[in-house]
Amino acid sequence: MDQIQRYQQLNENATTPDQYTVFFLGRHGEGYHNVIIEKHRQDWDDGWSKLNGNGVMTWGPDAELTLKGEGQADEVHAAWQEELQFGLPLPDKLYCSPLTRAIRTNQRTFSGLLPAGSKRTS
């Protein structure tokens, strides 16, 4: 019996209103703001964080994913595909920040994995 089956069994056999819930937590892929923070770590709070860009790159107020960030989301997607083959259930609900980088990460992570017409993201 795997861990998911244990939680399901606990819920089925519960004699009280207690319920066990499994949360799968993720973080957005690398955004352009992460690149600038890494490059200008010492000066981020004093100035760079108050700017939306530098003429070459835009990181605010709502940073997009970098190519690396898109690749990170694609890697998580591949991990979900693999784990689904072993019986890992898809989440019943997906909660996502309204920031573009979080939405894009969520979309890339679960693209093609959810049933057609599924509305799980809140």
From TrEMBL:
Database matches in InterPro entries: His_Pase_superF_clade-1 (IPR013078), His_PPase_superfam (IPR029033), PGM_Phosphatase (IPR050275)
GO CC entries: cytoplasm
Domain of life: Eukaryota
Stored CDD domains: HP_PGM_like (cd07067)
Any GO MF annotation of the entry: phosphatase activity
SUPFAM superfamilies: Phosphoglycerate mutase-like
Family matches, as Pfam families: His_Phos_1
Name assigned to this protein: Phosphoglycerate mutase
